[in-house]
Amino acid sequence: ISRRCHCDYEYDHSIHLKVQMRVHTGERPFQFHLCPRNFSRRGNLVVHIRAHKVPVTECKSNLRALLDKHRRILNFVLIAVLYVLDSTTIAFIIGIGSFCSFSGDLSFFSCICILYEVSCD
């Protein structure tokens, strides 16, 4: 049985049509309790939960090695946006993915999506 959306997309399975309808309605029924993100597809929520499980702890001596390990654990594409927080601190706001970065002097690292922070004093 073919299922057709009012926008002319056609699907063989009713669940695919249901997901397409969420695009039109803006419905995001899959909620994550650790952050304000909601998702229209369960699979996207699962990927986001995986990102939250990646531990990043306080920097000891080699922040670059810590971040390299952090990047290897993640296995999806990343998007980063640079923000200057003050004259000495630069933060990268990270979207879904595996690219993480830090300030030039290695004094600050932050992943909003992952909700962990590394700060070296």
TrEMBL record:
Record GO cellular component, one term: chromatin
Keywords from the UniProt entry: Membrane, Metal-binding, Nucleus, Repeat, Transmembrane, Transmembrane helix, Zinc, Zinc-finger
Keyword Transmembrane helix: yes
InterPro entries (alphabetical): Znf_C2H2_sf
Transmembrane segment boundaries: 73-99
Molecular function via GO: DNA-binding transcription factor activity, RNA polymerase II-specific; RNA polymerase II cis-regulatory region sequence-specific DNA binding; zinc ion binding
PANTHER family in the record: TRANSCRIPTIONAL REPRESSOR PROTEIN YY, ZINC FINGER PROTEIN 143
Name listed for the protein in its UniProt record: C2H2-type domain-containing protein
Classification lineage: Eukaryota, Metazoa, Ecdysozoa, Arthropoda, Chelicerata
